[in-house]
Amino acid sequence: MSLVSKLTVKPLLYVAGGLFAALVATATGWWIDHTTAAADLSVQAAAAASANASDQANRTRVRELQAANAGYASTVGALQAELRRAQAQVVTVRRQADQAVAAADARAADADHVLKTFMDRYAVQVKQTHCAQALMHVEAVCPAFSGY
């Protein structure tokens, strides 16, 4: 080998070997980055799928709650209408009860008046002798009429 080839070929071979080693190291780094990125991509895809499933579950729950709210509103409306009818009935029943009590009071007052009139007549008639004898005869025949 000549001096020129010693000075040029060997260093070129060393440089080529170094470049090849750098190429292998770079390729290995890229492969590690690719593997890590692929794993991260899988994790992110799983997280996205989980988020989508959670979103769908939340949307389903929202629809269920909206349906429940609509049912609640319908039920509350029906109950409020029934409450208004019941309150109107209470007013009617109270009015009728007041009228019935007033009518009963009027009948009681009338009965008291009739009783007082009868008792006054009875007190006057008892003092008359022929009525007193008739009353004694009635009491003798029917003791239930005595004591008045």
Structure description:
The chain is built from 2 helices and no strands. It has 148 residues and is an all-alpha fold. The protein has one domain (3-145). The chain is rod-shaped and about 185 Å long.
Keyword list:
single chain; 148 residues; mainly alpha; 93% helix; rod-shaped
Silhouette: rod-shaped
How far apart the termini lie comes to 167 Å
Query: What is the mean predicted local confidence, pLDDT?
Result: 89
Count all strands and give the number. Answer: 0
In terms of DSSP E residues, the strand content is: under 5%
Low-confidence stretches: none
Determine the fraction of residues in helical runs and give it as a percent range. over 70%
Order of helices and strands: HH
Largest sheet: none
User: How many structural units, i.e. domains?
Assistant: 1
Count of helical regions: 2
Radius of gyration: 58 Å
List the helices and strands and how they pair.
Elements: H1 3-127, H2 129-141
Question: Could you give a quick summary of the protein structure above?
Answer:
This protein has one domain (3-145).
